[in-house]
Amino acid sequence: MAAIFKQRNIITGLVLLSLVFPFITQNEYYLHIMTLSFIWMIGVYGLNLLAGYTGYLSLAHAGFFAIGAYSLGILTVKAQLNFWLAFILACLITSFLGFLIGLIALRTKEHFFAIYTLCVGYIIYLVIDKWESLTEGVRGLIGIPAPSNIGPISFQTALSQYYLVLVILLLVILIVYRIVHSLTGRTYIAIRNSEDLAQTIGISTMKNKLTVFVLSTFFAGLAGALYASFVRFIGPDIGSTAITFDLLTYLLVGGLGTLSGPIIGTILIVWVSQQLQFLQDYRMLIFGPVLTLLIIFYPRGIVGAFTGWKHKYEDKRSKNKDIPNDSLVKSKKQVKEG
Q1: How open is the CA angle 90-59-127, to the nearest 5 degrees?
Q2: Can you tell me the mean pLDDT for 61-68?
Q3: The CATH number of the domain where 97 resides is what?
Q4: Which residues lie below 8 Å from residue 205, measured CB to CB, with a gap of 6+?
């Protein structure tokens, strides 16, 4: 039974469910919510790669998400570029800015890094809010186009956009999986466990930290560009710290430093939030205590709790297997002595 809760099995099951979800429900609203969940998952995977596997908590993630969204919006609405060219450029612009910010931010460590990135995220929000000639300020950008056709494939319907975002999400999961299970992923984990020890064995920590930071911002920009093309309207609020803490909540609930955590945490929180909409602002009175208890008792989230349960189950099972063998040895000794 413990094998059922392996992360690979969980991810496979959720992917299969996602593929058939549009056929289970014909409600376009649910399809809309699920597509948004996939977009948030992409951003959470980027945050997880940096915070969960490298140990550096970035609080500027919403800022990079907004850069990706606004880059796509400005390039398509104002510069009138082709959608897919603007989409690629939006991800590259976000990554380039992430590279420049990372060169400075990664010279700090632990809570200093978190505070620095929090300030950077707020500065990005202020730039978007105040630079009205470029971003339209509080009015926001209106009329962002949906993804343009690729040959005979059209992305004008909600169903086609759903599968487009799902395919991109699966590519992101595959990339993260390959990174985590490679030598590079082990290097990131070594930095997380002890950066000083990683340096003593010859690991270039600055180079690896900068690489994972840029990759994390790339995923954030990718999610932002998808969000802009899906919602078709963006305002400065998408770069607020509230979005960063939403992404962090999805990650903490699902499981920090786990592969299936971003999927489970995002789906759970998004759908519970939808069911509690009638409470409006009072929803945090429920989420706050629950999240606090979860962090205290299960710091690695739901997936981490299942993983711990699985290890305990396997240990108990192995001990139970050893008991008959020990009794058999004792009985043989008694026969020989007799």
Answers
A1: 55
A2: 95
A3: 1.10.3470
A4: 191, 195, 198, 199
